[in-house]
UniProtKB/TrEMBL annotation:
Belongs to the DSD1 family. This is D-serine dehydratase-like domain-containing protein. It comes from Amniculicola lignicola CBS 123094. Pfam families: Ala_racemase_N, D-ser_dehydrat. The lineage of its organism: Eukaryota, Fungi, Dikarya, Ascomycota, Pezizomycotina. Residues 333-447 form the D-serine dehydratase-like domain. Keywords: Lyase. PANTHER family: D-SERINE DEHYDRATASE, ZGC:162816-RELATED.
Amino acid sequence: METLPSSNYPLPSVASLQLQYIGKSLLNVPTPAVVIDRAVVKRNSIAMLQVCSKLGVNFRAHVKSHKTLELAKIQVGNDMKAPADFVVSTLVEAENLLPFMLECVAIGRPCSILYGVPISQSCLPRLFRLASLLPSSATNIIIDNFTAFHHYTAQYHTFAQTLSAKNLAAKEIGTFIKIDTGYNRAGIKATSPAFSDLVKTVTDSGSFKGFYSHYGHSYAGSSEEEAATGLIEELRGLEEACSLSTLSPSTSICLSVGATPTATAAQNMFLSTSPKVAEFNEILARLKKSYKVEFHAGVYPLLDMQQVATKARPSANAGKQSGFEPLSKSNIGIKVLVEVTSIYTERSKPELLISAGSLALGREPCKSYPGWGVVSPELGNAKGIVYDEGGEKQGWIVGRISQEHGILTWEGESRGINELGIGTKLLVWPNHACVAGAGFGWYLVVDSDVEGHAYDVVDVWVRWRGW
C-alpha cells in the first residue's frame, strides 16, 4: 500500500502495550491515564444504530472524539449489509480508517468517508491520494463557498491529469454543501444570495451528494424539548435548502443532520408524549419520501459532563424500549484515572492535589457545575458522596487546574466528607471527552460487564496522532 503522511505520526506498538497492561487492575497502573469502559460505549453505540434503524435513516459515525479503529468499528456495527459511513475532522483519521475501508470494499460492504469541515487547500493533494486508493464516491468533502470550490476543482483537475499521464483514472470525490442552520461556524445559509449559484456550480460539476448540517449549538441546550427542537430545526433547515436550491427531489440527494444532543434526542421520539414527537415524525416522513436522510454524531459513545448537562434525553430508562440508553453520568464511557499526591486540610475548605491537570482533563468549563471534572463513585471514592450538580452539590470535583496537576475541592457541607489519603486512585468524569483524550497516546480499556473485574484492563486502544 502507498505510504501516507499518517506514517509521520508513528504509533506505539499495540502488542507491547497489551503486554504491559492487560490483566492489571487500574489500582496498579501509573497515573494519569485515560480509561474507556467497553461495555458502556458498546451500549451507547448499539442504541444509536437501533434508533436509526427504527426510524429508517442511515447513520454516519464521527471518529474525531476517540480517534481509534476499535471504537470506529463498534460505531458502525457488525451488519455487513449496513453502510460503514464515517465523518472525520482530520486526514490522519481518514488515513487510519483506510485499511478497514478496504476490508469493507473487499467483502462488498458499502462504505464512505466524509471530511467534515471545509478542507484546507494545502491538504487537497493528500486527500486526492487517499481518494485514489478507494472506490469512486467513497471519499467526500464539504463546501460552503464558491471560491473555495473553484480552487478545489482546479487542483483536482491537475491531479487527474497527472494520473491520466500514468494511464490511471482519477476517482470521483463527492461534494456535500454545508448549510448553516444557526451554529454560525462553517456553512452557508440557504437564504444567502450566493446559495443558488453555489448549488448550480456544484451540481454542474457532477459531484453533488447532498446537504449537511451540524447543529453544534445544541450543546447549549438544557432539556429534552430543546434537543428535539434542534433536531427538527435541522431537518427544516435542510428542507429549506432543497426548496431554495430548485433541485428536483431525488433519493440520490442525501440530507445529513446531527450533533450528539440532537441525534440522540431521536431516542425520545419513542418515549415522549411531547407534541414535538408528531412534528418530528411528520417532517421526517415527508423528507424520506423524496430524499435519503442520515444522522451523524461523534461523542455519543463516550459522552461527558457537557453532554449530560444538555439533558437531551431522560436520565433513567423509561421502559425496555430498544434503541434507548439513559443520559446520566453512569452512561459516560470515558474517565480519567488520577491519584491523590498531596492533602491540604488547613485551607478554608478541604482540598487535594491530583496527578492530572489541563493536559489530561482539558480547560473547557461545563455549564452545570463550577469545575473541570467530577469524581465518580469508584475505586478510592467507592463509599463516598458523589457530587450531584442537579441536587445537593456536595462532593469532590476538580475545582482548579494547572498544566500537569489539578486541585480537588470538596463542595458543600463538610459533614460526610470522604477523606482520601495520599496515593488514593480515583476516576474522574471529564467535561469534554474529545479534549480529555487528546493528551494521551492510548486508552486503557475496562469492561464493567465483567463481574468482579470491572477495573481490570482487558485491552489497550491506541489513539491516532496528528492532523
